[in-house]
Amino acid sequence: MAFALKKRGPSNFERAADGSMTLIEHIRELRTRLFRASLAIAVGLIIGFLLAQPAFDLLKQPYCRLPGMIVDGECQNFLQLAPTDGFVLKLKLALWIGLIIGAPVWLYQLWAFIAPGLHRHERKWAYVFVAIAAPLFAAGAVLAYFVVDKGLAFLLEAGVTGTDSQLEVTRYISFVTNMILLFGVAFEFPLTLLMLNFTGVVSARRLLGWWRAVVFVCFAFAAVATPDPGPFGMTLLALCLSLLYFVAVGVAFLNDRRKGRGKEVYAGVGDDEVSPLEFDPEPVEAGQRVDGSAPVAASEPVAAPAPIDRRYDDMT
Fold first, then answer.
1. What are the residues whose beta carbons fall under 8 Å from the beta carbon of 65, sequence distance 6 or more?
2. How far is CA 260 from CA 69, 251, 267, 295, in A?
3. Nearest alpha-carbon partner for 256 in 177, 201, 181, 303
4. Which own/partner pairs from 195-204 qualify as long-range (CB within 8 Å, at least 24 positions apart)?
5. CA torsion sign, 234 to 240 to 241 to 242?
6. Residue 118, SS3?
7. What does pTM read for this prediction?
8. Angle CA(277)–CA(278)–CA(282) in degrees, nearest 5?
9. What span, in angstroms and rounded, lies between the C-alpha atoms of 33 and 241?
10. What is the dihedral of CA 98, 104, 109, 113, to 10 degrees?
11. Helix residue spans in the chain (DSSP H)
């Protein structure tokens, strides 16, 4: 008994890669990807709603470590200005957790929509950069939590209210989450340099030549970003960013060596320097001498063109 197997047609990914999809099909593909990404975030939001309270307890630990905040073994409560502030804050934390939990799904949907327009080597390096970006962002988030823990006491002690004052809950959580986001994005700075090098925009030697300016920018950014105006948090962040910069430069040197950059014919020649000519010219023999007294044969006369008969009004 024979069975006829139906041949599977090309998938949307394959059709988008070879350019056979129409504009309407691209829009439908985008709609499908957005729906799947939204569904994953919604599922993560439900899970995040259950984990919002443990996340809030973790974020309030720097506040509870302030002097005078522990009374009878318990941390004092935050100040809440509106009845809905607590519920809205729980929804915000649940959304943050939902984005983190659903990140593998919505990042894949985004990648599946963009990848057909990339070359094979571009896809390979995109996988590498995404795999590096996640640990770097996590490292920046951990450092931000540590800096907030050490710098919050100084901020309150430097004010006129003192450290025993209650903080408003929504502003405090916004302060902590913004610091985590800022430090996490700042730790992606080496990836930007590597992208410029891997695409051939700048060489590793050029990146290394910027080290003085980069170190200065790192310390200036750390001085503005850290809440603690003391030298501890600023120096820690600046040193981490500088270290990541030099690691990125080292990887760029390895990439240039792998691709053979810097070995071009005119690589070692300056802009104002004459390039050497590395070839042996063939000798040219002297030609026969021409005597000026010898008569020169007259060329044949050229007939003058025939006159053109024109009237005075031909030009009009």
1. 149, 153
2. 61, 14, 11, 64
3. 201
4. 195/129, 197/248, 197/251, 197/252, 197/255, 197/256, 198/125, 198/255, 203/252, 203/256, 203/261, 203/262, 204/249, 204/252, 204/253, 204/255, 204/256, 204/261
5. positive
6. coil
7. 0.65
8. 90
9. 35
10. 130
11. 12-17, 23-59, 61-64, 85-101, 103-114, 120-158, 169-186, 189-198, 204-209, 211-225, 231-259
Residue 52 corresponds to which tokens in the numbers above? 């919002």
Residue 148 tokens, joined = 């907030």
Distance (Å, whole) CA 240 – CA 126: 24
Give the residue among 227, 89, 54, 93 at the shortest CA–CA distance from 169: 89
Q: Tens-of-pLDDT digits for all 316 residues of the chain?
A: 444 444 455 555 555 555 566 788 878 888 998 999 899 989 999 999 999 999 998 888 888 887 777 777 777 778 888 888 888 899 999 998 888 888 888 888 887 777 777 677 767 777 777 788 888 888 888 888 888 887 777 777 765 555 556 778 888 888 888 888 888 888 888 888 888 888 777 888 888 888 899 999 988 888 888 776 667 778 888 888 899 999 989 988 888 887 766 555 455 555 566 656 666 667 777 777 766 555 555 555 656 666 656 555 555 4
Tokens of 271: 């802009």
Tokens representing residue 281 in the block? 């010219």
User: Is 209:152 a contact under the CB 8 Å cutoff?
Assistant: no
Contact 52, 97 (CB under 8 A): yes
